Structure prediction request, 475 residues.
Amino acid sequence: SVDIISAIEFDKSGDHLATGDRGGRVVLFERTDARGNASRTELERQDYSVPRHPEFRYKTEFQSHEPEFDYLKSLEIEEKINKIKWGQTANNALFILSTNDKTIKYWKVQDKKVKRISVMNLDTSQSADNGTTSSSSTSSSRGLPNGGSSEKSYNCANNDLPFPPGGYASLRLPVVTGQELNPVARCRRVYAHAHDYHINSISNNSDGETFISADDLRINLWNLEINSQSFNIVDVKPANMEDLTEVITCAEFHPTHCNTLAYSSSKGAIRLIDLRQSALCDNHSKLFEEHEAPGSKSFFTEIIASVSDIKFARDGRHILSRDYMTLKLWDLNMDSGPVATFQVHEHLRPKLCDLYENDSIFDKFECCLSGDGHRLATGSYSNLFRVFGCTSGNTEATTLEASRNPMRRQVANPTRPTRTLTSLTRAVRRGGENAGADGNGNSNDFSTKLLHLAWHPTENSIACAAGNSLYMYYA
Prediction:
């Protein structure tokens, strides 16, 4: 289905949310709750803070990508949006980077006034008796895509429009007035023909001027204003492709240090590179990986070790990584191993053969962190997602279902809500306490999977995509 959501992202302020789908569309939502609009007098009257949950409404949508065909390689390029990233807001305009497998586009979304003609020389109401459409000179007119307007009754070529004897004593210029504001999306740049392999990630730099795009073997650095060339900063392609042992799976810039970025690989490694060291950053400055225990290697070891997503914490000190079985939290100052590991799919270990047969073992689940860095989340099967507390001494976890009735799966197995994690939409369920299907004895539905989710940058709110539905959960 073309309307299945394939990407989701909050902007830096948390006031806007963007989703992309398999049909190449980008849909924008804006926050509507009156955050901080109360007067000082009203706030002083309140002896307690009123909890206000963020509410979002539809703003606009636009077609970002169309299906294409590469005639040189006889390859179809689908329109599915792989990633969305927000740029810096300027002059009340929103800037968005979106990409499919091959092409990145830079969009500007801004509210434009729809211009309409409100005063004309001809009084078209007199032409009603002649069978033409009656309309007052100040009536609203149909807007055109270019911002103008169109009215059949203003067509001077229409012979039914009456002219007074001797014509008009004076002519007035038509008055064009701006009416309601409509958001208009315009493509400012197209960054194409720079990747031989499928683009898996894009990331904006904190300098506001550059961004990176990564495919399986290369990472390119772009200037937002220049789409004619990019700089290849990482190239892991071997001279002989038969010697290829790992590929790039994800790449992301540091949130504050514009010279630092991290990328993950299919072998479970995360490499930190410094753009100041050299033009081609094939040599990493730090390597984060967890070595397997001796004798524990199996056919699936390398497959489930592949990192599907990485995210920097907002403070820039930690990196969160997601592989098929676990979430791992890394400290940039400690590359000997993760500071914490959270089990997500340990109950699926006996089913790895079946998961390999139906290709589910290659599903790429995303991860996210809360703005304060105290919690983290990732998706699973049966439209479930897990929320973990990652502060010192907090080992509790919460499992939620993305549905209109998040309590539905709890009836058969009620449990005591956790004290550390607040109740997200009052749907609390302990997870990871037994080796049941999903930690609670519920069987997994591998056809429904929650791959994409994003945490609000400043509040305890999570947006997650289940199929073609978007769910908002708040604490």
Remarks:
- The first strand starts at residue 5 and ends at 10.
- Helices lie at 40-45, 301-305, 352-357.
- The domain at 5-111+184-374 is CATH 2.130.10.10 (Methylamine Dehydrogenase; Chain H).
